[in-house]
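Handout, page 2. Input:
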Amino acid sequence: MLHIVNKSATERGSLESCLAMATQGSAVLLIEDAVYAATKGSAAAAKIQAAAAGLKVYALGPDLAARGMAGRVLDGVNVVDFGGFVDLVAEHNTCQSWL
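Output:
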């Protein structure tokens, strides 16, 4: 399953709920303000690094760049472009958006 999170971890509990429900081997894609969680020094950095041990964690590169965070991505987080976003959706049978 592909889990897509678009809200900041400091704004809503979407990321925390997603990580609690995601099963090992699932993928989590962070987009829009959720990409802040994938950066060094963020409030959710420890949770993302822990999740990356059992989940595939991705962040949308254009959203990182738009927020000036492209150079601060955590180890274990894969950066994808819009084509990679489409590929992730096509690779997974189901997608869950966390709002």
